Amino acid sequence: MYMASPKNQALPTQDIKLLVLDIDGTIAGKSNSLSKPVKQAIAAAQAKGIHVAIATGRMYRSALRFHQEIRSNLPLAAYQGAWIQDPTNQKIHYHLPVAREIAYQLLDYFEQPQWRSLLSIHFYINDQLYVRELTRETKIYAQRSGIIPIAVGDLRKILIEYEPTKILALCDDTEAISQLLGNLRRQYTPAELYLTTSVATFFEATNPAVNKGAAVRYFAEELLGLQRNNVMAIGDNFNDVEMLEYAGIGVAMGDAPTEVKAIAQWIAPSVEKNGVAIAIQKFLLS
């Protein structure tokens, strides 16, 4: 039922009080929606008194319908945790943007001749998506996300007044994205910028204090008074690594990259095989 892992055989039982879920590739697959088995498993965990939260790279407004569908009683962690907001009272617990100076530097880098024709650049400001132009990749992204991009031409004029919550570069060429990530990781230290990929075609940059592990720690320790061994987290990609490492039980989806599976304590089936439901049944409902 699941992909074998040496860690699967000796995983200790944990007193889980908080379950944190990624969206894309974890609870939502090709259909861009939650399956009935996943919704039922989440509801069953909540009926046992387990808190369920979402931590996603998505925009807040794009992730909100998933948060509402699972009836979470916790804030929503969007943009890898750069924006944490409670939908019930609209309180923003955290907003940590990319420094304006670094945003300018990244934009200069993206607009070098070897990158300009390859990349679609997204700036996320005040939970709106700003782009220089509506590329094919941007249109596909917008359709799945359920948002309307705002084309402004030169993105520098947006930076005059605002700092972006997140910067995203899209490209169908996964080798180009890998090269871009490697280049910029050599240029910026982790203390200057958090760089990751949420899928192989998305390069993402946020404030250096931002990652899903920090968001999950905030949920657990600051809001609920829990410890890491009370937490279970499920994700499928490199932007989930920090929360899988933090959690007492870190579960990677079956189609996660090999490096992500390597740090997880259990490997679930893929999203299309309702891996989240199976993981919840194994660890929280058995």
UniProtKB/TrEMBL annotation:
Ranges that cross the membrane: none
Gene3D superfamilies xrefs: 3.30.1240.10, HAD superfamily/HAD-like
Family annotation (SUPFAM superfamilies): HAD-like
One Pfam family per UniProt: Hydrolase_3
Alphabetical list of InterPro entries matching this protein: Cof, HAD-like_sf, HAD-SF_hydro_IIB, HAD_sf
Protein name: HAD family phosphatase
Organism: Nostoc spongiaeforme FACHB-130
Organism phylogeny: Bacteria, Bacillati, Cyanobacteriota, Cyanophyceae, Nostocales
